Amino acid sequence: MIFEGLADKLQNAFDKLKGKGKLSEKDVKTALREVKLALLEADVNFKVVKKFVKKIEERAVGHEVLDSLTPAQQVIKVVNEELTDLMGGSQSKIAFASNPPTVIMMAGLQGAGKTTTVGKLAKLLKKQGKNPLLVAGDIYRPAAIKQLQVLGERVDQPVFSMGDKQDPVDIAKAAISNAESNGHDVVIIDTAGRLHIDEELMDELKNVKKAVKPHEILLVVDSMTGQDAVNVAQSFDEALGIDGVVLTKLDGDARGGAALSISSVTGKAIKFGGFGEKLDDLKPFHPDRMASRILGMGDVLTLIEKAEEQFDAKKAKELEEKLRKQEFTFEDFLDQMNQVRNMGPLDELLGMIPGVGKQLKGLKMDEGELDKIEAIINSMTIDERRHPEIINGSRRRRIADGSGTTVQDINRLLKQFKQTRKMMKQMGDMTKGLGGGGLKG
Ligand code: GDP
């Protein structure tokens, strides 16, 4: 995951400060030296690091911080704010045209993840209620058109293609007319990439730009290439002019140098981050949340969003009703467990909870334990799931045999379930209203 090494080093530096209580100017400077080294090791642009550390030093050695009751916390707060600022400050969104279709042109070198990102972006926009048209404008890379068509099918949005014999400018223009007549409010144009920046590529992109006047030019760069990604972004911005950056492969970039430098070097915001190869792996980039994660302060907002995506309101209401009536069963238990699992790998989720990330480092969450619970519940009859109190000794043996577990495993789960039910009952009582005396139960 991104920022792994950096997060560790920064948190170590600040842990030393936290142990001190009162801080001297020297303490802060020592910590900042460690911050500087950590950033350089994370492959952050040298000039960016220098400016960053200087800014923090100016803010952190002032009386306001050192004389405060919690100086270490204040230093971390300053670093958090400056890290956020370094990555662009606030979230930067796509500027949709008031007169649709909004035309988004994607640019980038070959292999950066451009075509994949077109598919991912289409899916993301579709979730927001848009109806995007995908345009196959990369006529040079073998299979790029086919690749986009496959992505379009998976997102269930049409792909506009004229094969690989037409001029990209004509393709782009025809695509926009097509979008207008078919009611597409967004057009996402894939364009050709090259292994390196060359004049021919830039000319082609400039021609497309001139012909269709995109509302948004998004540059796709591979974060794993570090400072090269920053240089590429700078060159594209100078030659073509870009409106924002999509940083791909953040899932494989343990250092994070590009993410931390690109915005301050180019002045362009990182609008989206690619966190994997799947279509759902493109996320809006939130500088503030990234900064919190680097500093081990968790990312509660993303966690809540993930939960909201998974838990539908109707089910939540039903569950609440069941709690009230004390009808919580093993079926609900399994349902809840699966909803949480659908949110993503457990260790990743726990890493978003403040303070948990660091403790969990190196500890793999035991998904096997959850598989076991699922197998046990699946081996129960419907009656047993709804009325666990009927599960006697011989039933326990049967369930253990059926699920490939032991009677001890069944006992443990039954005990756990009983506790959960009791807790749920208490919560249910509390929601009945303050006058109900629910806390007694
Ligand atoms: P293009 O030449 O720029 O159009 O690149 P592609 O879209 O074909 O992507 C190149 C490779 O990068 C493919 O194997 C993609 O699956 C992969 N890729 C793209 N984005 C991501 C990402 O965010 N994370 C990971 N792990 N792989 C990615």
How is this fold's topology laid out?
Blueprint lengths: L3 H15 L6 H17 L4 H15 L2 H4 L4 H16 L15 E6 L6 H14 L4 E6 L6 H12 L3 E2 L7 H14 L4 E6 L7 H14 L3 E7 L4 H13 L4 E5 L8 H10 L3 E5 L7 E3 L2 H8 L5 H11 L2 H13 L4 H13 L3 H6 L4 H4 L7 H12 L3 H5 L6 H11 L3 H25 L10
Parallel strand pairs: 1-4, 1-5, 2-3, 2-4, 5-6, 6-7
Antiparallel strand pairs: 7-8
Helix pairs in contact: 1-2, 2-3, 3-5, 5-12, 6-7, 8-9, 10-11, 14-21, 15-18, 18-20, 20-21
The chain binds guanosine-5'-diphosphate.
The radius of gyration computed from the alpha-carbon positions, rounded to a whole number of angstroms, is 27 Å
- Spell the H/E element sequence: HHHHHEHEHEHEHEHEHEEHHHHHHHHHH
Can you name the CATH architecture of the largest domain? 3-Layer(aba) Sandwich
Instruction: Briefly note the structural class of the backbone.
Output: alpha/beta
- Given as residue ranges, the uncertain stretches (5+ residues, pLDDT < 50) are 433-441
| Quaternary class | single chain
CATH fold descriptor of the largest domain? Rossmann fold
Give the strand tally: 8
Measured as a percent range, the helix fraction is 55-70%
Indicate how many domains the architecture comprises. Answer: 3
Give the strand line-up of the largest sheet.
3-2-4-1-5-6-7-8
**Which band does the percent of strand residues land in?**
5-15%
Per CATH, the superfamily of the largest domain is P-loop containing nucleotide triphosphate hydrolases
List the total number of helices. 21
Unique bound compounds: guanosine-5'-diphosphate
What is the CATH class name of the largest domain?
A: Alpha Beta
Question: How would you sum up the major sheet?
Answer: 8 strands, mixed
